[in-house]
Amino acid sequence: MKRREKGFTLLEALIGVAIMAIVVVAVAMTITTLLLNEGQAAGQNTALPQVQNAGYWISRDVQMARNVTPSAPNGFPLSLDIPRDDNPDNDYTIDYLFDGGKLKRQVYDSLGTLISETFIAEYIDTSNTTFSALDADAGLYKLTVRASRDETGATRSYEISQRLSSSS
Q: So where are the chain's domains?
């Protein structure tokens, strides 16, 4: 009388191991992709608000400026004359300049005394952040801001027009 053997055959065991290997590889690839994308998303989530903040402040000040004076070659430091009244001698001056990878906003009164200094944005890629005149006579300018963190970044371009003409 033959006894029935209990257990798996060699073929069944090999098929089971192959299926398990496919599942493990798929899970490992999914986890790796999630971890890499999370790091990129964190860098993007840090850089984008910095770019938007720089765009907001510079756009706001250029729109109010009586005179806009970008510097060569990338437009920074950027100097803006903001009117307090009809007399240009009473204008405030706002300078935007880089301090390492940070964008700094300095406000001076009509006598040239520093009133305030604020860091507007961090992680700025200074070699890819530019301010240039599209049509200086019409008061039309272009600002391109790039910020990056952890090898990911964000770039935005803004077209800005002055509300006041330079001849006011």
A: 47-161
Q: Would you say the C-alpha torsion 14, 17, 21, 22 has a positive or negative sign? A: positive
Helix H or strand E segment including 82: strand 75-82
pTM over 0.70: yes
Dist CA 118 CA 39 (whole Å): 29
The span from the CA of 107 to the CA of 96, in Å, is: 9
Question: Is pLDDT at 151 greater than 60 in this prediction?
Answer: yes
Q: Measure the CA–CA gap between 11 and 17, rounded to whole angstroms.
A: 10
What would the 3-class secondary structure string for 11-26 be? HHHHHHHHHHHHHHHH
- CA-nearest of 87, 128, 123 to 102 is 123
And the tokens for 148? 């990056």
Token pair recorded at residue 102:
């940070």
